[in-house]
Amino acid sequence: MRLLSLSFLSFILLILPYSVTSAADMPKTLSAGGQQLVLNGVGTRTKFVISVYRAGLYLQKKSGDAKQIVAANAPMAIRMKVLSGFASADKMKSALITGFNNSTGGNTAPIQPQIDQLLKAAFTEKVNKGDVFDLVYTPGGGTQVLKNNKQTTVVRGLPIKQALFGIWLSGKPAQTSLKEEMLGKDF
């Protein structure tokens, strides 16, 4: 029994560094459309015990209201930093497709051309540990997708922004704990 307890404690101590969320590598502010956005919250997307990426939500002012954030026609951004080689381009595409389906309640048809544009432009090249993706929305300007500070595409329209941000903030998010962290619940 003692050996089992020690084994369990060793396992917990081993995986702890992989499950801790930190805002240390997320800037406190980002610029979008000439406006400064503040870091609302940051969390880590995990699969099993692997930290896949860290995501930060940036807003004009802090908010914990997911529905309002998703619906808003206001400047905002999500920054994702890849933490693991587990996050390949194909896996990221697949996760986004699932996320769009969940975010829209399975009704992606009205925004399918924009989804295709985003997936084709942003996730055709290899994804490496340390890569940073910025999804920056500005009213009238659309959602700018950047990989390592280089623009890959701009996807126009509020509905695609709502579905995209809904991947993390909808009623069926990519990961509930990540949603809560991005909303500042544990920040």
From TrEMBL:
Q: What InterPro entries does the entry give?
A: Chalcone_isomerase, Chalcone_isomerase_3-sand, Chalcone_isomerase_sf
Q: Which UniProt keywords apply?
A: Isomerase, Signal
Which stretch is the leader sequence? 1-23
Q: Which Pfam families match?
A: Chalcone_3
Q: Which SUPFAM superfamilies match?
A: Chalcone isomerase
Asked if the record carries the keyword Signal, the reply is yes
Record's keyword annotation contains Signal: yes
Domain of life from the UniProt record: Bacteria
* TM spans (from-to): none
Q: Where is the Chalcone isomerase domain?
A: 23-184
Q: Which GO terms describe its molecular function?
A: intramolecular lyase activity
Protein name as annotated: Chalcone isomerase-like protein
Tell me which species this is from.
Cocleimonas flava
